[in-house]
Amino acid sequence: MSSDKPTSSGNYGAVMKGSLKLKGGASVKKKKKKREEEQQAAMHIEQPEVPQAYDEDHGIPKTLAERKFEVAKARREAEALERELKLTHREKMERFNEHLSKLSEHFDIPKVGPG
Fold first, then answer.
1. The 3-state secondary structure of the chain, one letter per residue
2. Are 53 and 61 in contact (CB under 8 A)?
3. Alpha-carbon gap, residue 85 to 100, rounded angstroms
4. Angle ∠(55,73,57) on CA atoms, nearest 5
5. What tens digit of pLDDT does each residue of 52-111 get?
6. 8 A C-beta contact, residue 14 and residue 22
7. 78, 80, 56: which is closest to 67 by C-alpha?
8. Under a CB-based contact definition with an 8 Å cutoff, are residues 52 and 62 in contact?
9. Does position 42 have pLDDT exceeding 70, yes or no?
10. pTM of the predicted model as reported, rounded to 2 decimal places
């Protein structure tokens, strides 16, 4: 019965402490960290120089995608404005009334009770 219980030194006496030893005795070399200056110089070389537009509010340079988005947004707004200017108020109301007349009366409030 006493042999079933593990003792602190009995079962773990043969355990080797320390780092893992790899075959061949080759040691793992740590990579040298690049200096921040080298990284900034490498990043500066990789990025091509393009004329940048600046955000009027904050003075932050805009990316190419942001500039394309603004151009597309301005185009969409101009097209929407043209569509709105083509119709007079009377024509808009006539269209709206036609739309309402085509709808079913399912959503109308039914009259309940006498009267």
1. CCCCCCCCCCCCCCCCCCCCCCHHHCCCCCCCCCCHHHHHHHHHHHCCCCCCCECCCCCCECCHHHHHHHHHHHHHHHHHHHHHHHCCHHHHHHHHHHHHHHCCHHHCCCCCCCC
2. yes
3. 22
4. 15
5. 566 667 778 889 999 999 999 999 999 999 988 888 899 989 999 999 888 877 767 777
6. no
7. 56
8. yes
9. no
10. 0.34
pLDDT digits (tens, 9 = 90+) for 11-25: 777 887 888 777 776
Cα–Cα distance, 24 to 30 (Å, whole number):
18
* Rounded Cα gap, residues 78 and 46, in angstroms: 38
**Residues whose CB falls within 8 Å of the CB of residue 50, separated by 6 or more in sequence, listed in order:** 64
Do you know the residue count of the chain? 115
Classify residue 48 by burial, with Cβ atoms within 10 Å: 0-12, 13-18, 19+.
Answer: exposed
What is the token pair recorded at 82? 């043209």
